[in-house]
Amino acid sequence: MNAIQTRGLCKDYQVPVKRPGLMGAFRHFLDGRTRTVRAVRDVSFDIGKGELVGFLGPNGAGKTTTLKMLSGLLYPTSGEVTVLGRVPSKRENDFLRRFSMVMGQRTQLWWDLPARETFTLNQKIYSIPEREFARRRDEVIALLELEELVDRPVKKLSLGERMKAELACAILHEPEVLLLDEPTLGLDIVMQEKLRRFILDYQRRTQCTILLTSHNMDDVEELCQRVMVINDGQLLYDGSLEKIVRSYAPDKLVVLGAARKLEAGQLSPYGEIVSLDGTSAKLLVPRQKVSQAVGEILSRLPIVDLAVEEMPVDHIIRKVFLKAASSGSGAAGRGLLEEEDGEERKEKDLHERSVP
Question: Which of 31, 211, 232, 245 has its CA 20 to 30 A from that of 126?
Answer without folding.
Answer: 211
